[in-house]
Write a structure and sequence with these properties.
Helix 2 runs antiparallel to helix 3, helix 2 packs across helix 4 and helix 3 crosses helix 6. This protein has 97 residues and is an all-alpha fold. The protein is built from six helices and no strands. It has one domain: AhpD-like (Up-down Bundle).
Length: 97
């Protein structure tokens, strides 16, 4: 249902991400990590964490992006984001063993 609308929305998001301005790939994903954490969107945050890591971000960089949420959006949102980060990366490490 509404396949055309979904495809248009997806194309818009991709165009903004890839051609919307001068910010490099790594930093675009770090920004998306911070936005997702600040809005408490756990599914989006998990997705953006993995995409950030795939784009070459380190765990420390992703963690820093989430920590930057605390002064603006609040400490509880940053802590929830850090818990999701640790859960995602600890689960990935367990699966690799």
């Amino acid at each position: 249902m509404h396949t055309d609308v979904y495809k248009a929305y997806e194309s818009f998001g991709q165009a903004v991400h890839e051609k919307g301005g001068p910010i490099d790939e790594k930093n675009r994903w770090l920004i998306k990590v911070a936005i997702s954490a600040s809005q408490q969107y756990p599914f989006a945050l998990r997705t953006h964490i993995h995409k950030a890591l795939s784009a070459g971000c380190t765990r420390r960089e992703v963690e820093h992006a989430i920590l930057l949420v605390a002064p603006t959006a609040g400490f509880p949102k940053a802590m929830e984001g850090l818990m999701i980060l640790r859960d995602e990366l600890d689960n990935d490490a367990s699966e690799e063993e």
